[in-house]
Amino acid sequence: MNKGRLEAFSDGVFAIIITIMVLDLRVPTGPSLEALRSIVPVFLSYVLSFVYVGIYWNNHHHLLHASERVSGPILWANLHLLFWLSLAPFATRWVGENYDAPWPIALYGLMLLFAGLAYFILTKALVAHHGASSRLATSIGRDRKGLASVIIYVIAIPLAFIWPKAAYGCYVFVAVMWLVPDRRIEKTAK
Fold first, then answer.
1. Less CB within 10 Å around the terminal CB: N or C of the chain?
2. In 24-39, where does DSSP find H-type helix?
3. How far is CA 160 from the centre of its chain?
4. Residue 74 and residue 49: Cα distance in Å, rounded?
5. For the whole model, what pTM was predicted?
6. DSSP secondary structure code for residue 2 in this structure
7. pLDDT tens by residue, 57-105
8. Is 148 helix (H, G, I), strand (E, B) or coil?
């Protein structure tokens, strides 16, 4: 199957996720800096989630650029990824409004963990479809950064109940780790 429809649909979903997140930002109740200060946690959770969705969109784009075609299982793997990412607006708002509570922080981490696992599954489905010696397979390699991300999320989720700020630190660390796009795919997809 041609990958064009998968790319277009996914791009639309990414755009909708970001739009829903920004619509959840509320205008401060007054014109003072104090009123603005009251929404800082909500804004910071939006920024972190925006960065994460942007990272997934960027890597998804590179992954599909290196792919030649898709199959039914790949379509389902992609929907699986989009499902977990579609929970970002909910998790973002809950953690933003309850920034010091362990359950919202842990749920945010679960959303990130399952999105990371879903991206891993999508990658494996694409590699299986294209073959172990394909350009895509060689460009992805062992995906150490993806494995490290999942391990950090697994550590951060229970950490939310012990030391919430450390859990946030883990989420920010993974985002920073991925801010530099994965050049492996970019180099081989030229």
1. C
2. 33-37
3. 19
4. 25
5. 0.90
6. -
7. 999 998 888 888 898 999 999 999 999 999 999 999 999 999 999 999 9
8. helix
